[in-house]
Amino acid sequence: MIIYQMKKIREIIRDNYLKDSSVTIVLVGKDTWKRKHIDWEIYSSLYDGVKNKRNGLIGVLLPTYPDYDPIKNTYNPYTIPPRLYDNIRIGYAKIYTWNSFIANAEQYIHEAYLRKIDYKDYKTDLSRPRFKQNRSGNRWW
After folding, report:
1. Is residue 52 predicted with pLDDT exceeding 60?
2. Share of residues in the chain with pLDDT > 90 (%)
3. For residues 89 and 84, what is the distance between their CA atoms, to the nearest angstrom?
4. CA angle 25, 64, 130 (to 5 degrees)
5. How far apart are CA 103 and CA 82, in angstroms?
6. Is 108 helix (H, G, I), strand (E, B) or coil?
7. Half-sphere exposure (Cβ direction) of 56: Cα atoms closer than 13 Å
8. What's the confidence (pLDDT) of residue 83?
9. Cβ atoms within 10 Å of 21's Cβ, excluding its own
10. Cα 136 to Cα 102: distance, rounded to the nearest angstrom
11. How confident is the model at residue 2 (pLDDT cuts 50, 70, 90)?
């Protein structure tokens, strides 16, 4: 019953809320990585179904995100959503700071759209098990 409910929620996310979108932007704050619905939305965005095709994917570190080092221009990859991390690692998704995204939003969204339509060069990673519940702790790894 629980698996059916999870599947139904994912279908609703994809079919009702993402159906007309081409790029998904994940706003990353302190606890974003912990949320099962964020994981489901990223999964649904990347799933290449018959009815709805995959979306491009962008992560944006909010100004309140605590693990960004502006001097080194680095962030803690284990405090962003794991599925976002997987797809950044393989080159399908990109992550930006808030200020960089605001200054270049149109360009970054267009680039994500181009990665979405270029199936030959850009694959997605959906191998990670989907969250069954919200997580806790300071990081996922």
Report:
1. yes
2. 74
3. 9
4. 45
5. 26
6. helix
7. 17
8. 98
9. 13
10. 30
11. low
Please give the helix or strand (H or E) that residue 94 lies within, else none. strand 94-97
pLDDT in tens, 73-99: 999 999 999 999 999 999 999 999 999
Q: What is the band of 17 on the pLDDT scale with cuts at 50, 70, 90?
A: confident
* DSSP state letters, 35-62: -HHHHHHHHHHH---SSSPPPEEEEEE-
35 and 134 in contact (C-beta within 8 Å)?
A: yes
Spatial CB neighbours of 28, under 8 Å, sequence gap ≥ 6: 59, 60, 61, 62, 65, 80, 81, 84, 95
CA separation, residue 32 to residues 36, 42, 69, 83 (Å): 9, 12, 18, 12
CA distances to 21, 40, 64, 83 from 126, rounded to whole Å, are 19, 11, 28, 7
Q: Name the 3-class secondary structure at 98.
A: helix
Which SS3 state, helix, strand or coil, does residue 27 take?
A: strand
